[in-house]
C-alpha cells in the first residue's frame, strides 16, 4: 500500500493501489449523493443500507475504505466497524453520526475506525479525513467550548457505552431511573 508516511504530509488517493470503498447508511438519498461524490473523487464505491448487508459485503470483499453511519435501522455501525477491523485491520474507516458525542467516537476508534465525523459531513470533509496522515497527531481546537448540559450528556453517553449500550445497567451506574435515561438517549445531543 504505502511504504513511508511523513507526519505532516497528507496522503493522496493515488498512493493507494486498492481504492475500494463501502458506504453504509440507511438514509438512501444521502447514501446515493455521498456514493456519487466519492466516485468522482476516484474511489470504487459500493453502497449498502443495513448492518447485515454491510457485514456480508465485508466478509466477501473487505474494502480499503469505509464510511459508516452510527445508527442504522437494523443495528449499530460499531458492529460494521468491528467486522471490517477483524477482516482488514489496515482499512481506513470513518464513522458518521447525527448524534455526535465523545463516548461513541471513542467506541468507534477502539473498534477500529480511523476517525469520526458528525453529520452533516460533506464528501470533501470525509475525503480529507481518509487522506489525513495517521502520524500527524494534530487536532483542531473546538470553535466553542461545551455547555454544562453537553458535558453532562457526554458523561451519560460514556457510561452508556461502557455498559455495552445496556440501558438498565447504565441507569443503575448513573443512579437514575431507566425511563429517564431512555428519554435522554432518545434526544439529540445538546449544543
TrEMBL record:
<keyword id="KW-0597">Phosphoprotein</keyword>
<dbReference type="InterPro" id="IPR011006">
    <property type="entry name" value="CheY-like_superfamily"/>
</dbReference>
<dbReference type="InterPro" id="IPR001789">
    <property type="entry name" value="Sig_transdc_resp-reg_receiver"/>
</dbReference>
<keyword id="KW-0804">Transcription</keyword>
<dbReference type="Pfam" id="PF00072">
    <property type="entry name" value="Response_reg"/>
</dbReference>
<dbReference type="InterPro" id="IPR050595">
    <property type="entry name" value="Bact_response_regulator"/>
</dbReference>
<dbReference type="InterPro" id="IPR047772">
    <property type="entry name" value="ActR_PrrA_rreg"/>
</dbReference>
<keyword id="KW-0805">Transcription regulation</keyword>
<protein>
    <submittedName>
        <fullName>ActR/PrrA/RegA family redox response regulator transcription factor</fullName>
    </submittedName>
</protein>
<feature type="domain" description="Response regulatory">
    <location>
        <begin position="20"/>
        <end position="134"/>
    </location>
</feature>
<dbReference type="InterPro" id="IPR009057">
    <property type="entry name" value="Homeodomain-like_sf"/>
</dbReference>
<feature type="modified residue" description="4-aspartylphosphate">
    <location>
        <position position="69"/>
    </location>
</feature>
